């Protein structure tokens, strides 16, 4: 393996779920050069990619499919905030979650769709049809939260979305 591929693999190992653009920025590699090395790493089974929600995320092979999907979602600050809220508060109705996180209910639902799709959160209904949000895999989710920290650009996108939501709802 070349030094450049070792560098890319090492970065991905220490930043699971990093997406292509972040990888290019952080390693200061040209797009074509990064594509070339990622293709070689993928063919050698040294890296695995997962395309979710408009981004391709990269992982070392030891990550299972559930972990890859979960990490891709956890790279979004608002999704992380929802999960941290549910870890701290326990099962909760959607309205208090949205209110306490100061996000629009539609923003919460957008993130919940992805959290549910990746089997991180469940919506449970009581006999009157009221929804409660519950963590699907609390121990594994808490462990993954320790591994992943959203990048600055990812945080900026989430914060911009929150700002637009707050302006639209006024």
From TrEMBL:
It comes from the Archaea. Coiled coil: none annotated. It comes from Haloplanus rubicundus. Signal peptide: none annotated. This is ArsR family transcriptional regulator. PANTHER family: HTH ARSR-TYPE DOMAIN-CONTAINING PROTEIN (PTHR36216:SF1), TRANSCRIPTIONAL REGULATOR, TRMB (PTHR36216). Residues 3-71 form the HVO-0163 N-terminal HTH domain.
